[in-house]
Amino acid sequence: KIDIFHSLFSRPSLFSYPPKFSILQILNHCTIFQLLTLHRAKLKPKLLVEKTRTMSSSSPSPVSATFFFSNPSSIRKPRTSPFSVLNTRAMAKDLYFNHDGSTTKKLLAGVELVAELLGVTLGPKGRNVVLHNKYGPPKIVNDGETVLKEIELEDPLENVGVKLVRQAGAKTNDLAGDGSTTSVVLAHGLIKEGAKVIAAGMNPVQIARGIEKTAIALVSELSLMSREVNSRI
């Protein structure tokens, strides 16, 4: 208290107070901030000590550089989740090689199944297809695009063949608004005949280039045969 009293009266700012204020009033008015500051200064070391104790109990002791480099085995390795192995196995994919031609046969089986199913709906005399529905009555459709979306096979390789022709039908439907069934039938013919000539020993790159040249020639011929429609119904 004596130190606080002397520190207060050593300030020149106290002389600005009128003489009517007593010493107690000056102390109550001026020293409240200093008292709080002293109280915080006394508590700060205690808080630091308590925080250091808490951190030392929860975290390992610091390691010196000499110990770190001389004992590399003491470094803690990050913990791995027990499900990491399961996640890695779940992300693995099956790989198939066409050494004996079995992979190509299964792909062709999926393509042929889709072409046979959609070929029924082709043309003005096309027939309907009945689709099974798990949550309602069966659907009777005559649209190749709808049938393509519902086809799903159990064999993964045959299902890849389904996805190949499905991509061709979807692209044609997006560009022209129709013709998905025709695209699937044409794709089936190209894949089937292409597999035959490849098995006979022809180069697949040359076959692909020949198909592209044939497509360009057919498009130009169809353009000559086409008639522009000027009237509206």
UniProtKB/TrEMBL annotation:
Superkingdom of origin: Eukaryota
GO MF annotations, alphabetized: ATP binding; ATP-dependent protein folding chaperone
Membrane-spanning intervals of the chain: none
SUPFAM superfamilies per the UniProt record, alphabetical: GroEL equatorial domain-like
Gene Ontology terms: biological process: protein refolding
Keyword Signal: no
Keywords recorded for this protein, A-Z: Chaperone
Family: Belongs to the chaperonin (HSP60) family.
Protein name: Uncharacterized protein
